[in-house]
Amino acid sequence: MGVSGIVVSNHGARQLDYLPATISVLEEVVKAVSGAVPVLIDGGIRRGTDVFKALALGAKAVLVGRPILYGLSAKGEKGVKSVLKMLQSELELTTALCGTTSINKITRKHVQTEGDRLRSLL
């Protein structure tokens, strides 16, 4: 198709009932493209743990909009810097707590999804 990448997003989901969260469909999209293009995720990223989960499920990057806007509206440039620092600190802590030494070493084995839990009950 000539695309350079894919952004998994559900813009408009707040107006539509029953759409899945982007994190819940991320892995399926990553598998579908089989590494042909990078997959990014947009939506639902609020904490460093969300960044960690997205990377573990195959995202090459995350897009962070709403937290940045919250920081900007609360404290301007300082607020944006604070939000970015918080996300970085939380990601670093989560990475360490999961026994990894860098974001490049985050793998699928570091997270359990709802689908994993359901499969384990069968």
Automatic annotation (TrEMBL):
Domain FMN hydroxy acid dehydrogenase positions: 1-116
Keywords in alphabetical order: Oxidoreductase, Peroxisome
Cofactor(s) required, per the database record: FMN
GO MF annotation list: (S)-2-hydroxy-acid oxidase activity
Predominant cellular place of this UniProt entry's protein: other
Nucleotide-binding is among the record's keywords: no
A GO CC term assigned to this protein in UniProt: peroxisome
EC number assigned by the record: 1.1.3.15
Record's subcellular location: Peroxisome
PANTHER family according to UniProt: PEROXISOMAL (S)-2-HYDROXYACID OXIDASE GLO3 (PTHR10578:SF67), S -2-HYDROXY-ACID OXIDASE-RELATED (PTHR10578)
The protein's name in its UniProt record: (S)-2-hydroxy-acid oxidase
Organism the protein comes from: Rhynchospora pubera
